């Protein structure tokens, strides 16, 4: 916002004053920096610097794009290159959209639409740009990285156990978590808020652990249980619920950019991505040690296994590396592979290490002590691995892939039902027919070309292409089954290539500018000085897995306990959960972060134990009460003097509506609607037909997540971009959410179902309406609310019967009033928020 305001001021006269738009690195948020480094700078380097940088033989049009100041200044035309926040006044954006026939950049090939969209987003967010140049400096000078100094950054230091602080207030703290929180409060002159009431607390615990509201029976039992261990029992009950894995798996799926399609220019379905989703759910339910969890996702196919089922699980885990967004229409297979590897490095480094290692693809990292050599040492590891995602050859998919078949002894579930052998025979017949048509089309076109090489052209190409696509599509369907009609057990994942390779260091990340070959290896700053980090055998994924999941790694445990803290407390101890680097924020309670990290590792990397430790603290159980004195000193609640009020995520809102309506199907879904859709473009029609054919009342984690086609019930409540690592979701409160809750057919259907459920509840009308309060808010209505309910009921029921005094009219009026009442509860802020 600051950059945008500055831009308005400086461009009011038409002359950009560079000093007014300068911003130090610290004024640019970590997520915006990452967006620039991953989405904007590589494009500028690859597409623009040849003609528009200090290293150009001749700077065309006087336009330089290699520094922030020069990019804003623009070229000889006199128009600003970029005006932060203003697309119309940004001549660079006009050029890359080819909107002006006299100014098109790049001049030969227009940038892909998703790249143009990234530039649009970048400009609209204020064009954050950390690149600087000073008078007398060589803009192209290489930054020297001092690893010894780099290792002094707090996040690269091993966590240390600090002696517990001495406290002035006695009796409040019941755990080490509380002691560190209270120490910070006392130092800041604040006081902790009183504990939350029992109804508020069980609702908070239930949503945090299961993503669902507590039942009235659970609330009643907890409120009446006055034993000292009552909270422990309810926490343990929810931790052992199968609903726990479904809730916490979704947090991890945000971090690892889970989706069931490729996204980008050609959005291809990934029918087997769901296996990775189910692996994550199962891992959280079984409390798989977090270090093991990470190892399996990086190198599960290379690890020892106990039996075929265990082996299959570990292979499925490597789907983490296969589910990312991909540009399947890229005609250069080498470039496609490099982009795939870059996406894998980015996802792995942010999700597990809290570092933006992919920023070193084109140059040494601008802020962290990570070299371009480090990047290509990792790139060699992934180039030595084959990523199998399962898309067949078709128009605009120039990079097909097979899948990994799991052995039948692994006893993995299938998304497809068994078909009859006759149906397999029919698929074979259709495939042979399609193959014959494809061959005949090719012969026909060859004959035409022999007669007259002007003849045929695009029409001939499309004829061949359509026939070949049809052949490949039928073959993809046929490949799903064995001859007896049993579905083949297939999965996305990663396997080692027969021969490992080392990557060349690419100047500016350009495939056409290879420099020296870099041995496969690990990130230098995270290794001890002088420690060998090169890899001589195999791809190196197994070495990388052990390196990341090691207790010696200073980042891994810290990053995960910070993610857990964020989900339970509403804000992270480190407020940039995906960036622990130099441009990330320092921890608000560094001693507590280290204490939690050490406890996490010492207790077997147990996620459930870590969650339990936090939930049983006084710090978690505080109320969200407002205190003016505390607020004046700490308005952002960084020291945690109260519980943060939090809006529920999209999935919890949808699931809660279905749950209180009595419509939620808790049976785990086998597979995904995406798995049952045919491949190719026809798959989207099949998918839409299945979802439209019947109510999909399963938990939201089982909804199909197709990039760029996310269900409205999720997007309206800030579902994250499924192509990016997302450790923390946005939480907005906008009119579209209210309109959704007022008008969406799914919401209306849930309100009707809840009304039918309430109508069957024993007792009189007021007792039934009170029960509705218990279902939705986990509490009884207040006296004032009871009065409002009576008034509503009298007025609405009379208006709804339209003056008719028949029994049928009265029944219909009462049902309409009850449904409207239930919908009003869904639309209330209390339903959507946790206190």
Fold blueprint:
Elements: H1 2-10, H2 18-21, H3 30-48, H4 68-73, H5 91-96, H6 113-124, H7 147-150, H8 176-188, H9 198-210, H10 216-224, H11 230-239, H12 242-255, H13 274-285, H14 290-299, H15 308-317, H16 333-353, H17 372-383, E1 385-388, E2 404-405, H18 421-451, H19 457-478, E3 490-491, E4 493-496, E5 503-506, E6 514-518, H20 541-548, H21 556-569, H22 590-602, H23 607-615, H24 618-621, H25 628-633, E7 646-647, H26 650-661, H27 673-676, H28 682-693, H29 712-715, H30 735-743, H31 745-759, H32 765-777, H33 783-800, H34 807-826, H35 829-832, E8 833-834
Antiparallel strand pairs: 1-4, 2-3, 5-6, 7-8
Domain DUF1549: 177-385
Domain DUF1553: 540-792
Organism: Prosthecobacter dejongeii
**Major beta sheet, specifics?**
2 strands, antiparallel
Low-confidence stretches: 1-26, 134-141
Strand tally, please?
Answer: 8
* Chain-averaged pLDDT: 87
Index terms:
835 residues, mainly alpha, 5 domains, two-stranded antiparallel sheet, two-stranded antiparallel ribbon, 48% helix, Cyt_c_Planctomycete-type
